[in-house]
Amino acid sequence: MKILFKLSILTAFVAVFSACKKDSNQLQLQGHDQNQMMGIMHATMAKMDTLKMTKDPDNDFALMMRIHHQGAIDMANLELQSGTDATMKQMAQSIITAQQAEIAQLTSFLKSHPAHGNDPDFDMQQMMDMQKGMKQADLQIINGRIDHDFAILMIGHHQTATENARLELLKGSESAMKTMAQSIIDSQTKEISQFQDWLLANGNK
């Protein structure tokens, strides 16, 4: 009797699953190892893992954000190349323009500001934030459709950046980096909301 009951449950599950497969709006998945956006995120994380920290919060914020920004630019370039949605392509171009300019500012700061701080706790928290963001990305539902994957993964990417920026506001001392940190919080919080609105309107497309 128990076996028949279990078989009935399994048959019902298969029937529901098969019916869902016929629905064009069903939740679709793609393996993370096959996903181009995830490939960029993993490559970015690998670069951050090898970053030699200085224990100076301002310098390490600049060093980490420079790599993190480049990851966003690489994802945005993929959206421009392979995406089809006009809104997402427009946001991608905006991200490229803004973050290329910030990378130039970060590089200029690093050239003119020798590391002199000693705050290993900042480095540890900064890396923990990045690793947490990567774990969250690995849990995201992605479907191989560039516009959808760009939007959903950039939300987490931006959230990690804002967490690091808040840490810089708390621990940093240089006005240039604190000003940039606040700018990152303001602009990327707004973009997170825009990505969320697009996903709510477009679903699993």
From TrEMBL:
Domain DUF305 as annotated: residue spans: 58-199
Highest taxon of source: Bacteria
InterPro entries for this protein: DUF305_CopM-like, Ferritin-like
Pfam families reported for this sequence: DUF305
PROSITE patterns: PROKAR_LIPOPROTEIN
UniProt-recorded name of the protein: DUF305 domain-containing protein
Species: Mucilaginibacter rubeus
